[in-house]
Amino acid sequence: MKNKILARIGAGLIVLAAAGLIPLPAFPQNSPIGYKKDILISPQSEQNQLFTWGGTVNIEGKVRKDVLAVGSEVTISGEVGDSFVGVGARVTLKPTAVIRKDLLILGGTLVREEGSVVQGDTVYFKSEELRERFLQGGVGGLLGAAYLPIVLIIKIISLALWAVLAVIVAGLFPGNVTRAAGEMRRSLGTVLLTGLVASAAFLFLMVFAAVLSVILIGIPVLIALSFAGILIKVFGRIVVYFTAGRLTAGAFRRTSVSPIGGALLGLAVVGVLRFIPLVGGALSFFLSLLAWGIALRTKFGTTDNWFRKTAAPAPQAPLPPGPKQS
After folding, report:
1. Are the CB atoms for 173 and 231 separated by under 8 Å?
2. Distances (CA, A) of 50 to 172, 227, 261, 326
3. For the CA atoms of the chain, what is the radius of gyration?
4. Strands 90-93 and 73-76: what pairing?
C-alpha cells in the first residue's frame, strides 16, 4: 500500500514538473525515462520500454514494449516491439525500422523512408493542417475559436500530459486499470450515477473548505481534498481511456491490447473528439463523471464494487461426535 501511495504522489510531481513548476532530476543513463537528454539504444542492446520528454533519441536496437516521445527528435532504425506514440515530436523511420503495432503521431513531423515497416495502423495528425482546414472551410465565430493557435497549443499540451500519466498509471498498476475497466463495462449506468453523486459531494466539500479557509481551519482540508480529487481524476481518466482504447481495438478485430497501449489509443481517440467544438466540452464533462464513478466504485481498481455489502460467512456445522471408547 505504501508503494502505491508513493507512486501516485510521483505521478502528481511529474505533472508539476512537466508544467515547469518544479525541476526534474537527472535520470540514470540506463533509465527508461528521459527528460531533455540524448538517448541511444545501440544495435545489439534491448530495452523494455521507453518514455522521453525532449532531447534526441536514436533507436538502433530493440525496445520490447511501447515508446512514448513528447517533443523529442526520434530516429528509428531498429525495432519497436509494441506501439510508438509521438506528441509534438520529429520522427524519422529509417529503411530498417520496424514497428510491430501502431504508429501514432500527434503534431510534429513524420518522415518514413522507403523500406520502413509499421505492422499496425499509422495515425498522423498535423495540428497546423487541421486548424487550416477548419478555418478555410468557413468555420468561424464560436466554432472556429476552438482552433485558434493558443487554444490548440493548450489542448496539445493537455494531451501530452495525459499521455505521460497514461504510461505511468497503466505501467505501474496494469491489474488495477484492467479490473476497473471490466467493472465499468458491466455497470456503466451505476458508475455514471456514482460519479454524478461523488462530483456533487466533492464540489460541496470544496466550497465548504474554501469558506473555512478564511479562518485558516479549512486550509489543510482544502489541500487534502484537492490532492484526493487529483488522484481520483487521474486514475479514473486512465481507466476511461483504456476502455475506449480496448473498444477501438476490438472494432479493428484486435483480440487483446496492453494497458499502456490501450490507454494511449483511447487517449488519441478521445483527444480527437475533444477537438470538436461544443461536443468536446460535453464529452469532457461525461468522462469526468465516469472517472469519478469508476475510481470510487472500484476503490482504485482493488475491488469490483466497493459499496457492495459482503454477506457474513455461514456458521460451520458442528462436527459429528467421535466413536465412543469402551
Report:
1. no
2. 14, 28, 13, 76
3. 23
4. parallel
Q: Where are the alpha helices (DSSP H) in the chain?
A: 2-18, 127-136, 141-145, 149-172, 174-186, 188-212, 218-251, 259-274, 279-297
DSSP 132-171: HHHHHTT--HHHHHTTSHHHHHHHHHHHHHHHHHHHHHHH
**Per-domain residue ranges for the chain?**
31-125, 136-297
CB 305 within 8 A of CB 298: yes
In order along the chain (326 residues), what is the average pLDDT of each group of 10 residues?
Answer: 40 40 40 60 86 84 85 90 82 92 81 89 67 47 48 71 83 84 80 85 84 74 84 87 82 74 82 71 81 83 62 55 55
91-to-13, 211, 229, 240, 303 alpha-carbon distances in Å: 28, 50, 36, 28, 41
* Contact of 63 with 45, CB cutoff 8 Å: no
* pTM, two decimal places: 0.53
Side-chain half-sphere CA neighbours of 237 within 13 A: 25
CA within 13 Å, CB half, 164: 24
3-class DSSP state of 73: strand
CA distance 114 to 82: 21
Q: Which three cell numbers stand for residue 139?
A: 468555420
For residues 48 and 32, is the Cβ–Cβ distance under 8 A?
A: yes
What distance in Å separates the CA atoms of residue 202 and residue 196, rounded to the nearest whole number? 10
CA 64 to chain centre: 20
The grid coordinates of residue 238 equal: 486512465
> What are phi and psi for residue 226, nearest 5 degrees?
-65, -45
**Grid cell locating 157:** 499540451
